[in-house]
Specification:
single chain; 168 residues; mainly alpha
Length: 168
């Protein structure tokens, strides 16, 4: 299943380059944090961190001059979600949506912070916050069908090893 997530993540990175904006909020969904959240919620911590590093490096390969930033953001997002293991039920959809919202918001905020350090400016415009919040909310809505799809694929390829399921 880890290999499937990494291949799917690589396809998502390429697909995101051509994805159109969503009409109401004028932003594109950022689907990579959904894969990172899924791996953090469904796999062991070591596998989840491996998926986070792999997906982050895939994204970094397509970003000029930012090698390691996306991988670091994915790792921090995974560690944040893993740190909430005792506080949330992972088979309860609103909790999963809330963790995906917070994880995506954390990822995008840290990514923009590194961008500010790179260009040596500390301006946080309202348009940036609108985009970060829009992408986070869009990922929150999209995480449920994606999690369901990944659970179905996981059942099809690994019938004996079932992850913690969202849909009971």
């Amino acid at each position: 299943m880890v290999q499937f997530l990494l291949i799917f993540g690589l396809l998502l990175v390429v697909f995101q380059m051509f994805m159109p904006e969503v009409g109401l909020i004028h932003t594109r969904p950022f689907l990579l944090p959904i894969l990172v959240a899924y791996s953090a919620l469904r796999f062991t911590p070591v596998r989840a961190l491996g998926v986070a590093v792999g997906l982050g490096l895939f994204l970094d390969l397509f970003s000029a001059g930012r090698l390691g930033v996306s991988a670091l953001c994915c790792i921090l997002m995974t560690l944040f979600i893993l740190s909430q293991m005792g506080d949330f039920k992972f088979d309860y959809i609103p909790h999963v949506m809330f963790l995906t919202l917070l994880g995506t918001f954390l990822y995008l905020t840290i990514d923009y912070l590194f961008f500010c350090i790179q260009v040596q400016t500390w301006r946080w415009y309202p348009k940036i916050w609108e985009e970060i919040l829009g992408k986070s909310l869009l990922d929150t809505v999209l995480c449920v069908p994606f999690f369901w799809l990944f659970d179905v694929v996981n059942k099809a390829f690994l019938p004996g090893k079932e992850p913690r399921s969202l849909m009971r």
